[in-house]
User: Fold Biotin transporter BioY from Arthrobacter gandavensis.
Amino acid sequence: MPAAPDPAAPSRPDPSPAPMASPGTPSTREASYGSNGAPNEPHVASRRKWGAADLSYVAVFAALIAAFSLLPGIPLAAGVPITLQTLAVILTGMVLGPARGAAAAGLYLAAGFAGLPVFSGFSSGIGVLARPSAGYLVSFPLAALVVGLLVRVVLSRIRRARFAGLFAAGLGTSFLVVHPLGIAGLMLNAGLSFPAALTADVAFWPGDVLKNLAAAAVAVSVFAAFPRLAPQAKPRRKTARSS
Assistant:
């Protein structure tokens, strides 16, 4: 049988439950500071949606690729001239990032396929896809996407030696994306065997090294002048010292 409550014992008021924040509503400190203790920047959320500035960047860099494509190239025996197109494409991906860089390169291709003479030698139209250089041409949007992703990974992890990181990202993209698709285009449209296509592609390697050096140097200068365009390095975690 349960014991009766002692009337002499002081009654304790029932504490009212503390108000609980809803799961989706962050606290004031959480809204001002991230999980790593660094203050949140108000412009980070706005990067998820494209605005007029993003569309302007895409249009300007598509025009930059076209301008570099129209500069006179050095013709080679395989029918693919050495031009500054890849320099502009790699630089576009470095500066604009993966999505906007790929969009700028895609806009350049769309303008050329639609009839604007923006391809090498003032050419245009779908017929350029039958040329030996077609593989290099169609690799541009993918190359801008890949180098943008690599630059984002590299610059989010390093604070110094940015030039070396950008150069490695650009050169890696050239050999992972541009050259394999270029070799495939030589084999398909020029009828070359793989060894012959690879030999023809090797002629572009020294120039690609120089072009990626130039792209990295320009990108470093752009990020220094416009820091908001550069991916930010992750803040270092402070380890507690043992007493």
